[in-house]
Amino acid sequence: MQEVLKLGNREIRFESDCEQLIKLLEEDKDWPAMEPELDEIKALSADFTEFSIAYIPRSMNLRADSLAKGGRSRVFGSPFVNCFAPS
C-alpha cells in the first residue's frame, strides 16, 4: 500500500489470497497477534480516495500462486509485485 501511494495512485483495488485477512478487515474483528498490521492497513487505506480489498483465490491468480510457491525456496528483494491502473 505504501508503494502504491508513493507512485501517486489514490484509487485502488487490492486483491489478496488470504481470505482470513479480508474477513478480519471487513468484519472489524479483533486478532491481537495481527493488531499492528491491521491498524497499519486501516490507516494507510484512509490515504486513498477510493479503496477496496477483496479475496481472490490463488487458483484464479497464477502470478500470485507462482510467487507464493517460489517464495518458499528463495528470498525476494522487494515485496512489491505489480501496479497498474484499473480499466
UniProtKB/TrEMBL annotation:
Positions of the RNase H type-1 domain: 1-69
Pfam family, one: RVT_3
Name of the featured protein: RNase H type-1 domain-containing protein
Matches recorded under CDD domains: RNase_H_like
Organism: Brassica cretica (Mustard)
InterPro entries xrefs: RNase_H-like_dom_plant, RNaseH_domain, RNaseH_sf
Domain of life where this protein originates: Eukaryota
